[in-house]
Each structure stands twice: as structure tokens, then as C-alpha cells.
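Worked example 2:
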Amino acid sequence: MGRFLSSATNRIDAKGRVSVPAAFRSIIQARGYGELYLLRSLDTPSMDVGGPDLLDAFERRIAEEDPFLQTADDMSFLYYGDGAFLKLDQDGRITLTDFIREHTGISGEVAFVGRGHYFQIWEPKQLADYAAQARERLRQLKRRQSGSIQAGDTE
């Protein structure tokens, strides 16, 4: 089954709607999603968006926790309280609610980025900043791993 890949930036129209990228819409259609589930990302100013399977994955994760411990309660609170359902209109657009705008800082444009089994929506500048930071973290990791491999080869 298709994965959400790549990224795109689209403008918000006068009615507060934005077109979901065509590649993402084709995956949504192929998966038979009637509505989308979105959740405020825990550690970035973005929204995680997927179908019912994304919510199912969160519910399976909650079920793994001891129901008498705070972790299960916190997860339930966030996955349900910080989540909402979205519908695509007939033209493949979603409406950017205050719930979305307040967490992301989105105003005139929306950046969509694929994350495999789900996608995220971001304010474009914040996404660019995050992408640069992620690349740098991975460069540093690669350098450390490359250095330890080279050091191991010389011993």
C-alpha cells in the first residue's frame, strides 16, 4: 500500500481551506478513508494526520500500558483530547480550524510532509527550520558512527 512521501506547500484560500496534495489524496482514497484523524504533535508545532488506522495504532499503544498508571491516562488524554476528525471536501481541501492554527502557527500557507503511514501539516518556515535541524542531527550521528567505524578498523 502507498506511503505518504515527499512534501508540498499550498496556499490557504479566502475561506480558510487548503488543498491536500494530490499524491496524498490518492493514498487517502486508496485506503478508503472517509475522514482523517489529526492530532497535535507532542514535540513539534505540527499536526499528525492519518486515517482511522493512526487512531487504532494509538489505541493499541494505550492498551499496552498499565491502566492504573498515569502514562495510560496521559496518553488517553492526549490522543483523544488533542485529536479531532477532518473531512476532505469534494475538491480535496481541508478547513484549517483554530485548533490547527493555534498549535502550528499556520497563517497563509501550509506545508505538507509525508511520514510514511501518516503525514504532517506545518507552517512552512517552521518546517524548513525543523528539516535543517533534523539533517544536522543525522549528519552528526553519521560522523560519529563513521569515526567509530574508522577507529575500529585501525585497531
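The mean pLDDT is 93. The chain is about 45% helix and 20% strand.
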